[in-house]
Amino acid sequence: MRSNKINTIIKILALVLAALTLMGGCSGSGCKGCKKGEDAAMVDTRGESEAPQGTEEATSSSEPTATPEPTAEPGGEVTAAGKPMAFVRANSTGTYGVASDGSVRFRGRSVTGQHLIYDWANISDLELNDSTTAALTGLGTLILTGTKKGYEAALDWTNITDIAMGDQHLVGLKSDGTVVACGADHKGQCKVSDWTGVIKIVAGGDFTAALTDGVVVTTIGSGFDEALNADPVVDIEAAGDRIVLLLKNGTVRTVKLKYRSGAKSAEGGEGADVGEFTDMDWEGAVRIFAAKGSTFAIDGEGRVFADSSVLSSEEAGSITGAYTLSASEKHVVVLFGDGTCKGYGDNGDLQTAVTGWRLLPYVTDEGWLLGLVPGGEYDGAPAVTGREVNYADPVTGEERAATCVILGDVNGDGKIDESDTAAVEAHVKGSRKLTGAFLRAANVIMDSSKPNSIDINDVERITAQAGGRNVIDQYAKTDAYTAPLADAKRKNSDALGYITIKGTNISYPIMYDKQWFYNDHDIDRNKATRGCIYFYWGKANKNIVITGHNSRQSGTMFHQLHKVQDSASKLKTYANRVWAINTYGQTGYWEVWALYEEPGFSNPNKSSQMYNTCWPNTFNALNEQDKQKWINYQQKKNKLGYTVNVTTEDRFMTLVTCGDTHAEAQRGSRLYIFLHWVGND
Predict the structure, then answer these.
(1) How far is residue 527's CA from residue 521's CA, in Å, rounded to a whole number?
(2) Residue 6: what pLDDT?
(3) Cα–Cα distance for residue pair 312/105, rounded to 1 Å
(4) DSSP letters along 161-185, please?
């Protein structure tokens, strides 16, 4: 790196330049770097005329203290890469992945409810701090989760095309190039209403910055802005106390802010000195990234550069094929050009457990282009199964021939409906033979035990999407449950989920049929005392209840839930209390938040079982007050040595089995484990 420390010659040049400006070098409102309606010579209120008396620092504040030395004449100009069609976002305890189809994933730990994104769709941008997450929809409106107080005004914004978030404020760029903001404004970070012609916005801890036509403006002060614009800028990012610039000559420049008490910004808040300009010795950068304490870049070949304590330059140098990334002060997550992701750094909150994600369209070894949106377009024309295209690698731009495949679109019209179901059923029965791309489109569940089979699993999933009951994963991801659930469903189509609990022998399909059929029948539908693990209901609701017998003699079914109970202290470690469970064909991550065993009753009808399981109605039928009472009841009886913040907006799961002894169980004794949804792949 070369540090741009300002030497005496540059200081003199800067003063001469400033003097020329005061003499008319800037035309006021006509200058792109000035705010509308302000005279350029009067913008910087950190000047001598307004300096607080009695401090040496204040009396010299008319001079930009860290204006960078102009760089050498560039050998070639660069342009920033466009907005990515899929991306990742990180804060200190979690990571979001937004796929090219607008769907969202989350892994990590949430304290304020930032995990509550399970029904989000059509998301085009997402920003967050450590307590609040804001997402921009394809309609130009915002949705929020986590702490919403202070950001309510954002829910009424319209025509938004870009968002940015600081530690306590939220900023939106409107389609007409103006900017709106809400939240904390103690340093003038929300005073952006007079900005026009903006093409990109970013935010740091307590400031906002924007890129107009090659000119950077901020809420910090015009003297600071002047320093930022010493060289032409083509892209900008910000986080914490830093702004990162991609200059027109390809240089990546980190500008670290150093606040100085007594210095005032143009908006009247505390100002900032440009404490340190650092130009990185990285070549070929096309994307830049800022995080608290870190600067990153990716070049046109997908190589990663890092100036960070989280990811060393050596580790970064070993990464290839990167498309975009995001980082916190604890971890980094990279999205690669093939749509896969990898995390680096701290995983104590499972924030780097992202290897199951797929966020971009990709071409398989067989030449199938997967990850397309049903009813959507690719390269300006309808995306339909069987269409031949030239696929451009999102990192390098290299093209290769590929054939579009929309899973479930068996007839090649780009949609998934009853005609596709009929075509797959005919293939399974042998009255029709699907080949090529159409055969691959029918193979929706490409499980590892029978990866090339077309069977009941595929028929059911296509039927479910055609009926609006489920959504086929077009990225064709698989997980630990894909094969065992598919095998169970081939044996019995009543298998609707799968549960495996680490540290126990519990690993079973989850069945469902009416009137408690699987209470005393096995997966082959034969009479069996131990029955199966089964759902209370045949479809999902906001408290999914799963039960099974405490088969003490064989030690099977849900017997070893008591082993979890006996070693409950292990659940104090976050990773130990987050369980992957497949319900109704969807694998999610569920955190244990309450556990207790209710003893037997003299009158078994006094058991809490019906209340805890919301039987015969569902949790959905409760009003907000009764939902909160239900949560409070479980928290009061909880025997775990930790507390988890859950709300009425959560999705819950209740696991139930009989008490530890047969005699107690006969009198209504039950063991309850309560979980809530905290993530997905």
Answers:
(1) 4
(2) 37
(3) 27
(4) EEEEE-SSEEEEEETTS-EEEEE--
pLDDT digits (tens, 9 = 90+) for 41-55: 222 332 333 333 332
Q: What is the pTM of this model?
A: 0.87
Beta carbons within 10 angstroms of residue 147's beta carbon: 17
- β pairing state of 533-535 and 507-511: parallel
CATH node for 482-680: 2.40.260.10
Task: Output phi, psi for 243, to 5 deg.
Answer: -120, 135
Q: Which residue, 620, 473, 460, is CA-closest to 101?
A: 473
Q: How many CB atoms lie within 10 A of CB 436?
A: 13
Indicate whether 200 pLDDT > 50. yes
What are the extents of the domains in the chain?
A: 2-59, 87-345, 362-466, 482-680
- Helix or strand (DSSP H, E) at 104: strand 104-108
| Cα 435–chain centre separation | 37
Which pLDDT value is given to residue 275? 61
Tell whether omega for the bond before 52 is within 30 degrees of 0, i.e. cis.
no
CATH 2.130.10.30 fits 87-345, yes or no: yes
How many Å from the N-terminal Cα to the C-terminal Cα in the chain? 38
Structure confidence by residue, pLDDT tens digits, 400-448: 999 999 999 999 999 999 999 999 999 999 999 999 999 999 999 887 7
- Neighbour tally for 120: CB within 10 Å: 20
DSSP 8-state code for residue 261 = E
CB atoms within 10 A of CB 372: 25
Residue 273 above 70 pLDDT?
no
Q: For residues 501 and 510, what is the distance between their CA atoms, to the nearest angstrom?
A: 13
Instruction: Tell me how many degrees the CA angle 535-541-544 measures, rounded to the nearest 5.
Output: 40
Looking at the DSSP bridge assignments, the partners of residue 244 are 237, 254
